[in-house]
Amino acid sequence: MTTTSISDIPEPTSAVRRNQVLMDYMQVRSDARKTHQDESMAVATTKESLLESSLKGAMVNEQG
């Protein structure tokens, strides 16, 4: 049975490191996009609710 210490694991090559940095960047961008979409959805939902309430109020007023 052989044991491997951390010092035996090779350092990432520059190409591997560059890909890791790119993947990290893409993940951060994806997270930012999702956050923006969530915020936009919350605003749209609020506006939709306000519009529904306004329309219901107008219908009640028309019907007396």
Question: What's a quick, concise take on this entry?
Answer:
This protein has 64 residues and is mostly helical. 78% of the residues lie in helices and 0% in strands.
Describe the structure.
The chain is mainly α and 64 residues long. Helix content is 78%, strand content 0%. It is rod-shaped and about 85 Å long. It starts with 13 loop residues before the first helix and ends with a helix. The model has no long low-confidence stretch (mean pLDDT 86).
Instruction: State the end-to-end distance.
Output: 87 Å
Class from helix and strand fractions: mainly alpha
Shape: rod-shaped
Question: Helix count?
Answer: 1
Listing every helix as H and every strand as E from the N terminus to the C terminus, the arrangement reads H
Helix content class: over 70%
Uncertain spans, ≥5 residues at pLDDT below 50? none
Task: Determine Rg (CA atoms, Å).
Answer: 27 Å
Number of strands: 0
Structure characteristics:
single chain; 64 residues; mainly alpha; rod-shaped
Topology (elements, then pairings):
Elements lengths: L13 H50 L1
